[in-house]
Amino acid sequence: MSNYLLTQNNYQSTQKEQILYDYLQYLVRNQEPENLIDDFKAIFIDASEDFIPEIWQAMEAIIDMEPEPEDFHNIINRSCYILINYWLQNPRLQKSIPDLVNLFQEKANRYATCWTSQRIRCLSSSFSRTEQYFALQRLARILTKQVEENTKVKEQTLVKLINRYPYLYENSINNENNTDKERKEIIKIRQKQQQKYELDLCKYIIYQKLSRKNNYVKNPTLIGDKELNYTIQYFTGKINGGQTLRNQSEIFRSYCDLTYSYRSFKDGLYEYLTDTINCGYGKSKFNRKLYYKLKNTFSQNNSHQPNDSLMLDTCRDLLNFMVVESLEQPKHFVFYDLINNLGPIKVIGILLKIVLFCRQARPNLEEKFSILFNHYQGFNSGKVWWLVKCMEILNVALTTNFGRNRLCCL
Q: N or C terminus of the chain: which is more exposed, having fewer CB within 10 Å?
């Protein structure tokens, strides 16, 4: 009997939710965003029983079924995305998305008049402390047109810089409740922002090559001109042995095609990743750690011939080791130690070599940086400037090696 009642409650809840969703879908097509945001506030923030009777009754029925906070948060998230998905289709309307997201930072206009209203307000307030809401905030930040001087960047929280890093968008904004359509919209935003950054960086590179520099082209990064020039040269020019990092990856890939054992593949991978590390720290500490890490990685396959799947798993495991394991275990001592001893350019260079050789691992690398970004998003940028520099340098590395235009070295 209890299972039957549970099924009935779930069915009734779904029906009432659909009434709300249908209403929001109607409004978003027939009402200006400013008015719609007022209505949204009346439903979720004010929780006003004076609102349209049919909608209030639907909300009342949902609350009467005593949903878990997570279930009600999903309703709020779904309701937000009904509006967001429509507004994303029209550049004129996109500016309303931050206003919608900021609603959850506002307080109700008056005291709650009943228990249902109190409960809705409580659940809406707790939504602002969920990862779903943090993802919405990051999306809003990307769409917020804000001109800020670089000198003030270090005083801002890290989350305010997310629009600078398109490779973070998919992992930092999407969550498990997003639909395929919502994920595609995030990909579109990423592509548009990536194209803009690539164009800005290309203009900067061309400007640096001019013998006569008339109109100044702004450095599109948060690192100085001298360091940016060196970074571009490092990721596109010839380094040890007169080969670019891209050339080295192609040579190593050819080596892998001729390798008959996984053990030999790991030995070659070790040499490939460490041939640019010639400082004392690298030789005495990191190289040794990396060697033992690879030695013990999937050792049961040592005598097998490596295939694409095994090589991808190895690269993923290396990224866990070198950057950060997971959102649940965001320990990154190795990465922080590497940055302090090798410097961010060489460290990002090693990571780039991994994804140049195994391009299927690039989403994993992007995910690792999203984990670090999300972990530190509430910190002032100045306090985690080491991470900001790494993200800026990774932006250059990915753009110069994976961008649509082959950006040449300085």
A: N
Q: What is the Cα–Cα distance from 81 to 83, expressed in whole angstroms?
A: 5
Cα 216 versus chain centre, distance: 31
Beta bridge partners of 380: 157
Phi, psi of 405 (to 5 degrees): -95, 135
Nearest one of 120, 123, 132 to 42, comparing CA atoms: 120
Q: Spell out the domain ranges in the chain.
A: 2-129, 194-402
Reduce the DSSP state of residue 44 to 3 states and report it. Answer: helix
How far is residue 162's CA from residue 343's CA, in Å, rounded to a whole number?
23
Helices (H), 296-332: 308-322
Per-residue pLDDT reduced to its tens digit, 3-34: 433 344 454 567 889 999 999 999 999 999 99
- DSSP alpha helices (H): ranges in 32-95? 33-44, 53-64, 69-88
What tens digit of pLDDT does each residue of 375-404 get?
A: 999 999 999 999 999 999 999 999 999 987
The token pair that represents 29 in the structure block: 């097509």
Q: How far is CA 233 from the centre of its chain?
A: 26
Q: Which residue has the tokens 């943090």?
A: 134
- The encoded tokens of residue 392 equal 């800026």
> If DSSP codes are grouped into helix, strand and coil, which group holds residue 380?
strand
Residues whose CB falls within 8 Å of the CB of residue 34, separated by 6 or more in sequence, listed in order: 96
